[in-house]
Q: What sequence folds into this?
């Protein structure tokens, strides 16, 4: 958490301006998704630099040309979303757990991105989120969801990817984009403020023709294995 404090201290004189703009952009009737996202996409690299974090991005060319895909990364911690907001140029929607929905600033980010909030202990509500995602992906929105369900506390090691997380993709018949995050946990989940490089690897997508005959658990295993392979290849670089 020391790095968060560093980001705040080094941005102290402009934080009110940032907050005011974020609150202003929460007016979704006035500002479209592209405008709202563009502000975060411009702001996040500044904040990351002030936290002494460099994002090393690979494979951006692997993202589908058409919108309406879902990204499935490994989940390392609170910094993960910032790596996406800096490197992913097109708007995307996140799926966040209900525990953060009333946290100051995160609450506004949820509104700004029109994120889906999921209660994993409520089956009916979780199914509604999956249906919402399916509809929105079919309409051309891009999504980000963490298939592990919670962050791994073992560095670059993955937890089990849950098959149910892939239901919205199979229902929408949309591209699935595996994404490997490396060393993102070091940003906020350690007490270091040393200069840090976080890697994000957008891997080649799975299209519906690639996975249509697979069970959701098999898709989950395949996506996890591709991410694990990438981490093994690059984590020592």
A:
């Amino acid at each position: 958490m020391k790095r968060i404090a560093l980001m705040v201290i080094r941005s102290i004189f402009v934080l009110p301006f940032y907050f005011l703009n974020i609150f202003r952009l929460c007016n979704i009737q006035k500002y479209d998704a592209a405008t709202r996202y563009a502000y975060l996409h411009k702001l996040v690299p500044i904040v990351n630099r002030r936290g002494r974090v460099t994002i090393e991005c690979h494979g951006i060319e692997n993202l589908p040309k058409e919108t309406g895909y879902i990204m499935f990364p490994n989940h390392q911690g609170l910094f993960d979303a910032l790596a996406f907001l800096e490197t992913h140029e097109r708007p995307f929607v996140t799926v966040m757990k209900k525990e953060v929905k009333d946290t100051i600033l995160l609450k506004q980010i949820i509104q700004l991105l029109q994120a889906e909030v999921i209660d994993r202990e409520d089956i009916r509500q979780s199914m509604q989120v999956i249906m919402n995602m399916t509809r929105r992906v079919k309409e051309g929105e891009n999504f980000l969801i963490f298939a592990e369900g919670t962050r791994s506390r073992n560095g670059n090691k993955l937890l089990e990817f849950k098959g149910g997380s892939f239901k919205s993709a199979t229902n929408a018949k949309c591209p699935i984009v595996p994404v490997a995050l490396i060393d993102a946990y070091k940003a906020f989940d350690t007490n270091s403020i040393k200069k840090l490089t976080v890697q994000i690897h957008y891997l080649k997508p799975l299209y519906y023709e690639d996975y249509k005959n697979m069970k959701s658990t098999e898709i989950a295993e395949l996506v996890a294995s591709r991410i694990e392979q990438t981490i093994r290849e690059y984590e020592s670089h």
Summary: The two ends are 25 Å apart (CA to CA). DSSP finds ten helices and seven strands in the chain. The mean pLDDT is 93.
